[in-house]
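Sharing a chain and its predicted structure for anyone who wants a worked example. Both blocks are below, sequence first, tokens second.
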Amino acid sequence: MKKYKSVLLKLSGEALGDKKNNALYSPEALDYISEEIKQARLAAPETHFSIVVGGGNIWRGARSTGINIPRSDSDSMGMLATIMNGIALRSALEEKGIASALLTSVNIYPLAEHYSRRKALLCMENGSIAIFAGGTGSPFFTTDTGAALRAAETGAEIIFKATQVNGVYDADPNICPNAKKYDSISYDEALSKGLKIMDASALAMCLDNKISSLVFSLRMPGNIKKAILGEQTGSIIHP
């Protein structure tokens, strides 16, 4: 069992929302996620811990709404959505007594700190959780790529991708009850099988920098803590 020295948790924006009531934020979801992060933090206080959060609960892109907005502007709106989510997550963590700092690729001071690698490393060395928002700071890149970039810059050993399913399957387990789950798979094999773990640019960056990924269910209490302690959960994708 391996306790990781440095990890990056990738959260989707949808995880913070409330689809049932068509609300951008769910108080229950924010409380649940922040508590799960708190338990992981307390279990491994010496581990460098960072988070990248998406913006899908607020903005899914112009194509999803039918609004005629250029892709670059649409992606800029998505970057701002991730910053809003970063503020919400920072607030939820601080309410639970977990120190965190929000670092954004877009200079939006004083709402958040402008990202730099040195600031991020200093934050984590001081025992705080670094929350990265704003994606890469450029359009045409997803938050998956932003997560891979920040993981590479800060020396994260592994990306934890918390999703709605408990691992990587050869088909959608919600549609195909006989879908095969992979406990361990390489990036090359995942690419050859067409498994959509993350976008191509993020995969390439993880491969180049020898960063593993772990896909697991956010819905199962204790999974983030298990993952950070190196316990078996979900599916691991290795270089």
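Comments welcome. The longest strand covers residues 6-11.
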